[in-house]
Amino acid sequence: MAQEFDRRSFLARSALTASGIAVAGGATGLLGEGIAGAVQTNGPGRNGVSTKKPKRGGSLTIGLNAEEQGFNPTTGRFDTAGFVIARTVFDPLMIINGSGKAVPYLAESITSNTDFTKWTVTLRPNLLFQDGTPCDGAALLQNFEAQYNSALVGLAIKPLIDSFDQTGPLSVVINTKNPWSTLPVSLAEQQICFVAAPSMLNAPNGGTDHPIGTGPFTFKEWVPNSHYTGVANEKYWRAGLPYLSQITFKPIPDDQARAQALQAGTIDMMHTTDPTSIKSFKGNRQWGYTNNVGKMVGSPNLNLIMLNTAEAPFDDLLARQVVATGTNAQQYSTVIDQGVCAPVNGIYQPGSPYYSSVPYPKYNQSKAKSLAQQYAKKHGSALSFTSNIVAAPQSVRQGEWFQQVMKNIGVKVSLKQVQQNTLINDALFGTFQATAWSQFGGMVPDLNYPWMSAATVGKSGISINMARNDDPQIQDDFLKGMANPIGSSASVAAFKNINQRLAVDLPYIWLDRTTWALVANSKVQNWANPKTPSGTHALGQDQGTWWITQAWIS
Description:
Elements: E1 22-23, E2 40-41, E3 59-64, H1 80-89, E4 94-96, E5 102-104, E6 107-112, E7 118-123, H2 137-149, H3 153-157, E8 161-168, E9 171-176, H4 183-189, H5 198-201, E10 217-223, E11 227-232, E12 246-251, H6 255-264, E13 269-272, H7 275-281, E14 287-291, E15 302-307, H8 317-326, H9 329-335, H10 365-379, E16 384-390, H11 393-407, E17 412-418, H12 420-429, E18 434-439, H13 449-452, H14 472-483, H15 489-505, E19 508-513, E20 517-521, E21 524-525, E22 541-542, E23 545-546, E24 552-553
Parallel strand pairs: 3-12, 3-13, 16-17, 16-18
Antiparallel strand pairs: 1-6, 2-14, 4-5, 6-7, 7-9, 8-9, 10-11, 11-12, 13-20, 14-20, 15-18, 15-19, 21-24, 22-23
Helix pairs in contact: 8-10, 14-15
């Protein structure tokens, strides 16, 4: 689905001990769903991993699935494309390693008290932003406070974070409102992980059109709807990196046009969720290729229909039951996603420690028709609604399929084609009834707290619980899961229950898991082989994002 919203926006057994957690060259343990990195590749030499001596110089052009509205991590609405770009100009405080654990990156260490309510983040010494100013405790505090006071990002973190205190020249303490055992993962995976220069944050527009960070590539220019270009940061703090001299990103929302641009040599690399493109490039050794099919670290993004439960008709559970019962996820997987993506019925998949059988309605056309008749009798008219879709060929096909399956049960669906940014804004402001959507993957379940908690339901204006599903039990289960060490029986039980509640509330009509693929021409080397600052392997692909710092051109 092109209409994705990255859950990172804004924002093995556990190694946690009764004395608290210390991450200083160590890691926050995760209970993942599989192995790290790509699951399927085009084999040695075409898997994005190279052991050859890197060559310096050269320019890399990458095709992305969307354009951004700006690049300020404290105010932006980053989608997957936004995260790919952000990782070149900014650095994260933490990074997910190849085992699925959060380890230090820009931070030198992160430590907590015994109940996970005070986290001390200490930066590496002698860090400089690309404008030559120090990346220190004062800069970190300014970033945290800007995020907290942001009209958008603040909605995600204020329910969880109480305050920040600078406690040293390189250290800031994060005071949380409730125990939060996996906070380091958010400082690797969520938008709040990036640290921008104070000069950028102090600019009249927050520097959103001229980002300044500590990352491997310094901003050169941005021409909206054309390209974003960065050049190598000659004073990058990671010695010897990057290898490339320049990197350019081109937004190409149309999946087939992006694939054709790669084949024509207009771009060197791309990401995609398009089944036709995936089937075309997979197994073709002309191309470097990886995807995330099968078991993976964390949970995958999911394709779904999101319903606005705060407005008619979906403020009535019966309407949601009609749509859920009448939607054939297996058929969607086969017909629309060509069997590339496995059908789902919840946020966790078989093999996950959080997965269990859920009471989500099974597809039953006859029952759906009966429920639709009950709705019509109750309300005096047949169920009808408008569903937003992105104005792109694959999205239109998805929408027309949904429109037909609803027609088959006596429900009228009108399709509204919009640009991806508009679709996201409509969801945030609640100006929708139903919308095609892709979201909810993550390293740990609580990364979905902002999107599913009752505490983040906006009564007016912006709501980052965009389905507006106001279920206090889900919020309680999130807090219970976060308060206990990840992987503990108490944590697993709490997160399992969230999936159970979603199957009853039905704010989301589940379709299938999102398959992300990365494809590159044969000259692009080592793009799937990132390393942490300590030299260990980092996660190569994460829901359509990847690291370009270590890539080079042969």
